[in-house]
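Troubleshooting entry. The earlier prediction with zinc ion gave an output that would not parse, so I re-checked the input for stray whitespace and re-submitted. Clean input:
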Amino acid sequence: MQLIEFTDKGLYCAPGNFYIDPWKPVDKAIITHAHSDHARWGSKQYLCHHYTKPLLQARLGDNVYESIGWNESIRLNEVTVSLHPAGHIIGSSQVRVSYKDEVWVVSGDYKTETDHISGVFEPVQCHAFITESTFGLPIYNWMPQESIYEKIRNWVIANKAAGKTSVLIAYSLGKAQRVLKALEPLQEKIYVHGAIWNMHQALLSAGILMPAVERVTPETTKDDLKAGIVIAPPGADGSPWMKRMEPYAVGMCSGWMQVRGNVRRRNADAGFILSDHADWKGLLAAIRATRAEKVFVTHGFQSTLSRYLNEQGIYSAEVKTEYGNDDEEAVNDTGIVEPHDDQINAEL
Ligand SMILES: [Zn+2]
Ligand SMILES: [Zn+2]
């Protein structure tokens, strides 16, 4: 039974009459997380996790929002729906859809290593699993988060000793909050770009505890920022906004930094391989844990992952969606995939 159909508006559950992360306006949208390609404007009603609600309000303005907690079930017609942590960004959820004897799970985006702020990815058994594949190639193999965090801190300390401001480029929702946590042990004042400030305020309003930050404003002086720490989104990189940080060093935080050459192409001084998505092993472990008989693969390296799963005896098909223009996914603007990759370290 095709409990979730792939339509031109998005993933549709006919017996429940709702969409999951639709890319066109619909009556009822269940939203996995607040990244702009999964949470689009124009629907009549939104259902999401409690933590996602203030983020949607900040990004989509006033609408009808309903929110529930993880592992909490609601009924939509004859269908039971529940949300389960996806570990991707704060509030990110997998959507479990159950009707008669059939269970399907839509993963949204996810990562399997816990980052201590986004909730711990929860494997949910199902008949069919719809997975992302942003980093669905065997070359993507993340180092433990704590060692990446340590590299970031050491880089910041070295910049300070050299009289340079550290500018860490991280997406405003997801990566920025993790970088903030990584920097917390340094006990330094941290400045953020306005885009990150806005997300920060939304998270605080949801009752989420975050380290203190200061917003960079026109009043922020060069002296304030001298040899300090700044977190900014990719859009600010190389813009006049960054002039006041001079002299500075740029550190780019993204899974794409694992591809050789991306640090150079983006004119960064350092690349930190930090991702909010599962690596190759994480994807496979998550898929196996669902025990799904059918796996549909969306945005990323669909054909590679799907082919691999079929070879392993798990029925799999690729699905074309309009996801993949958020955050980290958009950083891969080089479109380059190099299978003979060496890790790029902070030393570069
Ligand atoms: Zn996302
Ligand atoms: Zn996505």
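This one parsed fine. The pocket of zinc ion (ligand 1) is lined by residues 33, 35, 38, 88, 109, 326-327 (CB under 6 Å).
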